[in-house]
Amino acid sequence: MVTQKDISAACGLSVSAVSKALSDYPDISEDTKRRVRDVAEKMGYHGMKSELNRKREHTYTLGLLITEETERSEYQDVIKELRNTLVKKGYDLVLLSPLRKGGGNREKPGYLPRARLYGMEGVFLFTSLQESDLYHHKDGRNLRELILGEIPVVAVGSFWASCSCVLPGYEKGIRGLIREVYMKGHRRIAFVFKERTAVDAQWYKAIRMELEEHYLRVPEYFFLRVEAEADGGSEAFSEIRDLLRGSRWLRPTCILFTDETLLEGGAAAIRQCGFRVPEDICLAAIRISEENKYEDDSVLSWRILPTEIAEAAVEQMFDSMKGSLHGAGRIRVVDGKLYE
């Protein structure tokens, strides 16, 4: 019986390269795949058909990987709508649990082996990690294996050059909010945002550019950064409280938050310090939520609807599942709009 080892000897390739070619891995060139398949067919390799059909087999199962709890809370509405959208299309969404530290699951298989075991046709990735983290983060190797594997991956809320991405239109939202509060007469604007991914670096750049366009100079201590893996609400509470109670004579008349969790913590700190919203301090925020979920007339909001993010992610996934490649580098931006 012909084996992959026999094919590798005939092609002058390693056994792993032959296995990847027969499984249609994206890191093997199309010419090599054709050559390996031609040789396998001529040699009468009976496993080739099953290898090729395994990828095309429909299990109607997609995976959901959330690497940090902060991502779960920030995108809980998106995840809910994602599940609802897939159910309408006849697909199941199965949680791919993250790898944890400790001896309890030291022998636990990585993401890609488990995704294969569950028959996942694709995986939706929610993470605050950057692509550079693949090479030094404790979870990086397993994520790298998943993203470079044969199963399509769509990253939601973070930019990855190696797979398709769906990004909320934060940059447009931030610039829109700054323009709006400027028109309302605010010149002392503070910003609260998380330091985590390349996306956040774009936010910071957008803030700086918009301020320059309006010839606004904001003190450096008005830029309040919250660590990605920290409790965003608690950190925002502490940062805002220290800012308002500090010895600096200049306090902001408006504070802009880049997500809902930061807004909740910051608003609590403002009220605890005895300031009124919006009479003393105006609040503005980017919010991923349905239009009528929060009844808070005191906050100027740039809303990005979870349903639109979920639908865009599903479209990206189905497009990736149709081809042999993952749609690496494809980006879909979901814009929002201003709500008074």
Plain-language structure description:
The chain is of the alpha/beta class and 340 residues long. 44% of the residues lie in helices and 17% in strands. The chain is built from 13 helices and twelve strands. The strands form two sheets. Strands 2-1-3-4-5-11 form a six-stranded parallel β-sheet. Strands 7-6-8-9-10-12 form a six-stranded mixed β-sheet, sandwiched between helices. Strand 6 (189-195), helix 10 (198-213) and strand 7 (223-227) form a beta-alpha-beta unit. The longest helix is centred in the C-terminal third of the chain and has 17 residues, at 306-322. It starts with a helix and ends with a strand.
Q: Could you say which overall geometry the principal axes of the C-alpha atoms support?
A: elongated
Number of strands: 12
Strand content: 15-25%
Distance between the termini: 72 Å
Strand order of the largest sheet: 2-1-3-4-5-11
The number of helical segments is 13
Order of helices and strands: HHHHEHHEHEHEEHEHEHEHEEHEE
| Percent in helix | 40-55%
Class inferred from helices and paired strands: alpha/beta
Rg is 24 Å
Query: What summary fits the major beta sheet?
Result: 6 strands, parallel
Q: Could you tell me the mean pLDDT?
A: 83
Q: Low-confidence segments, ≥5 residues, pLDDT <50? A: none
